[in-house]
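Render this sequence as a predicted structure.
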Amino acid sequence: MTSVLVTDGLWRKSLSAVRSLGRQDIEVGVTGDSPFTTAFYSRYCRRRVRLPKATDEAYIDAFLEELSRHRYDVVLPMEDDTTQVLLRHRDQVEALSRLPLPSASSLAVAADKAATLELAASLGIAHPWTRRPQSEAELEAILADIPLPAVVKPVNSSGSRGLHYADTRDQVRAAFRAVLPVYGAPLVQERIPGGPGLGAGLLFGPGAEPLAGFTYRRLREYPVQGGPSTLRESTHDPALLESATRLLEALDWFGVAMVEFKLDPRDGVAKLMEINPRFWGSLELANASGVNFPWLLAQTALGRAPEPSFDYRDGVRCRWLVPGDILHFLSNPDRFDMDPSFFSFFDGMHYDDFARDDLRGSVATVVCTAAQAMRPEMWKLAITR
């Protein structure tokens, strides 16, 4: 039986991956740094592995020891910190298992928003006006040229961490000063007014061959003004998929990634925002629509050449309820006029967190979320996933 180790089992995308693999009769192990690791309690989790945090020096030794003790055919890293650690020790990991990641140089460009947008410009892919001043003096030199409203955000971050919105030039200055000492020189970017967020999930095999593709549209986010999606809908958007494919092909990509865009209502053009060089938070929507990215990636890593998967159902909706869409509801002043309504719990709705065939994992979602809510730092992380 094929065995796969899924890291970072706390997060909803990890729970989705565990379920997606387990339903294909794959033996799934899960890593986590706490007993309140949600995916530990899924019926599809066969082995629970407590490890230090990926940012701890002890992590890699403990991880390699687990690979030595128990056979895993494939390792699927789910978070950026984990990916970076495993990449630094790639030879040691791949001596024990398969690690379906692109090259370090490709990942470096994809994780760097400035480098990503520079590559997009060279390929003729539309993106917002963007600059990266290195100091307050450089910011002052371009301040008059910055389109307002603007966004100031770190070059390397996920979700809404370090993200600041600015309606005036004084607010741009204040945001720059807040981000600079914590994250380094940030991007200063025009803010696309309104318009839905769009995403393209892709899987590439050897030789940067596209093996699976999927597009979707965000319907709700938390925070309301911009953050991870709490409700989204599958679409078929060939132009979006083509742009995302060209971008990742230019990076000689291998494995999965999600390319994020935003539709600009001023000209109707989808503008590139960033690459998420890993599995993404709304992974369950793709699975509910008919594209099982975790299983396809595992098959690709094993050299089994799965059939290309670009055919799926559109109009499928999937929701992150706990705590994502609940927080959206509580913070949205139009909470009772949303379409679809917050109270549309059924009618074909799918969930990131709940699954009829995984009662234990569904209950764990509530219990583990409640337990993690006792830790203030987890609220900061939760809104970035």
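Summary. Residues 197-353 form a domain with the D-amino Acid Aminotransferase; Chain A, domain 1 fold (CATH 3.30.470.20). The first helix runs from residue 12 to 22.
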